[in-house]
């Protein structure tokens, strides 16, 4: 999945079709690889920072340091020798856009959210593919995600393309979109 995503062929684990679609939209807008990450823990005492993590299918493009290793979570169940092949390391700092599309089955629509922030160089000691994000008014975004039933995955990309993804999603595809941080 890492190699495919690094070559602008988004691939997401956990059968996350809408996550893959979100990755694809960001990749089309920026012409650079996208990754699928988990919204994870808050970072320290800063309400605008959070840990974004995955076990790791991130494209090599995302890392400041990277190595191939075993998948630590699944290794406990199936054995370490059966999980080698994930890429792990620290996500490099830089501007980022994020997006998430989801189906609302009861309303019969596709909806989502987009926004921008940055990956930081804050210290973090854990496993997998991991980075710290800084997003203005992050707690409002996390409330929006929870209150509207969005999944724990988010697509990210080293770009500032939220406006383009939002416009394409709303104007041309008819999706119901929330643009985090936009006045409109």
Descriptive keywords:
184 residues, L-fucose Isomerase, Chain A, domain 3, 9 strands
List strands and helices in order, with pairings.
Layout: H1 2-6, H2 17-30, E1 34-43, E2 46-54, E3 63-70, H3 72-78, E4 84-91, E5 94-104, E6 109-119, E7 129-134, H4 138-147, E8 153-157, H5 162-172, E9 176-179
Parallel strand pairs: 4-7, 6-9
Antiparallel strand pairs: 1-2, 1-8, 2-7, 3-4, 5-6, 5-8, 6-7
Q: What does this entry look like structurally?
A:
Strands 1-2-7-6-5-8 form a six-stranded antiparallel barrel. The longest helix is centred in the first third of the chain and has 14 residues, at 17-30. The termini are far apart. The chain has a single domain (2-179), classed as L-fucose Isomerase, Chain A, domain 3 (Alpha-Beta Barrel). 26% of the residues lie in helices and 39% in strands. The chain is of the alpha+beta class and 184 residues long. The model has no long low-confidence stretch (mean pLDDT 93). The chain is globular and about 45 Å long.
Radius of gyration: 16 Å
Structural class: alpha+beta
Proportion in helices: 25-40%
- By CATH, the superfamily comes out as L-fucose/L-arabinose isomerase, C-terminal
